[in-house]
From TrEMBL:
SUPFAM superfamilies: P-loop containing nucleoside triphosphate hydrolases, TPR-like. It holds the Pfam family TPR_8. Coiled coil: none annotated. GO terms for molecular function: protein-tyrosine sulfotransferase activity. The lineage of its organism: unclassified sequences, metagenomes, ecological metagenomes. This is Uncharacterized protein. Keywords: Transferase. GO terms for cellular component: Golgi apparatus.
């Protein structure tokens, strides 16, 4: 069930979770992941119900409290609000549970417009998680620079294949997380001819399968060791990987935000694909990221300085891609989209 949910087939995962809960109605992980799947499908009332069932098994389960808080509009007298406040002072509370509950309390205090307390808990939550992970913006900056150096305007020009039909009907929606990629996918996939696949790791996997490490060099440092035809091989690999998901849909949306790193490679490997770059007010974008507890990855998100540094690196590399590909990138402003969808 988790595997199905992770590849974007949430609908199928629901039935597997149901089957698991028939075998063991009190299986804690099945309950909470079923709740997460329900939330993804917009079934919030049912998702909340299963959150509460999970908390009956373990009341101080921090991740469940955070998950529940994302679906509740709080008032001062909210019972769940009171429970989280009582738990946060428990000296026996595990650090991981405390971190999640701090995120939940931040959301609750924001709802009741006590913004100083909201940000205080938000900072505590991020600090607690940041201490548990290893990350350096120096590494990410160096990687971005390497990609820029390899995929120069001249290199992209001599490497493209204008006769290839690969990528027909494929739309990549990319940008920073929390910049509007989900909203854009929802709008596009509301059309009967468009399949929204969610955030797929398939393109990066296709790159790794073709540009395998050679002479001790990994992508992007090994690109010059492979023939130019390798780019189209990446495209074929990607199309094969998505074929079962896409079925006979004329249009297919991949909204993995971090594909912005591979934008030149997307255009070289899938020449007929379309690129939608979502952009948002930088402060709003970064604050929205800082308020989010992500799953795996996004390690830059839990420290304000590192978040700003990563965002600046993102802006730098995207500026470079815009100069190279120009009108081949459709830049979509989030604020304009929510204010006037039809005009955008």
């Amino acid at each position: 069930a988790n595997a199905l949910r992770n590849v974007g087939d949430v609908g199928s995962s629901i039935q597997v979770y149901k089957d698991a809960l028939k075998i063991d109605p009190k299986h804690a992980n099945s309950i909470i992941y079923y709740s997460l799947a329900l939330k993804t499908l917009g079934k919030f009332e049912e998702s909340i119900l299963f959150c509460k069932k999970a908390l009956e098994i373990r009341q101080d389960w921090g991740m469940v409290h955070r998950h529940l808080s994302s679906m509740v509009k709080y008032k001062k007298d909210n019972e769940h609000f009171k429970i989280m406040l009582s738990l946060i002072d428990d000296k026996n509370l595990l650090k991981e549970d405390k971190m999640h509950i701090c995120f939940g309390l931040s959301k609750a205090f924001e709802d009741i417009k006590e913004y100083k307390k909201a940000f205080s808990f938000l900072s505590k939550a991020n600090d607690l998680y940041r201490k548990e992970i290893k990350f350096s913006t120096k590494n990410s900056n160096n990687w971005f620079k390497s990609v820029k150096n390899v995929f120069s305007k001249e290199f992209c020009e001599i490497s493209k294949d204008e006769n290839s039909e690969l990528g027909e009907g494929i739309i990549f929606v990319l940008g920073m997380p929390r910049s509007g990629t989900s909203l854009v996918e929802q709008i596009l996939s509301s059309h009967s001819k468009v399949f929204g696949a969610g955030e797929l790791k398939h393109f990066r996997k296709s790159v790794d399968r073709v540009f395998v490490e050679a002479d001790g060099k990994k992508f992007p440092h090994n690109v010059d060791l492979y023939p130019k035809a390798s780019f189209l091989e990446v495209g074929r690999e990607y199309e094969n990987m998505i074929s079962s998901l896409r079925g006979d849909s004329p249009f297919f949306v991949d909204k993995m935000p971090y594909n912005f790193m591979y934008l030149p490679l997307i255009k070289l490997s899938l020449p007929k694909s379309k690129i939608v770059l979502t952009e948002r007010n930088p402060i709003d974008n970064c604050l929205s990221i800082y308020k989010q507890k992500f799953g795996i990855g996004n390690a830059y998100a839990y420290n304000q300085k590192e978040l700003a540094e990563y965002y600046n690196s993102y802006k730098d590399i995207v500026k470079n891609w815009k100069e190279i590909f120009n009108e081949q990138i459709f830049s979509l402003n989030y604020e304009q989209l929510i204010n006037n969808q039809k005009e955008v």
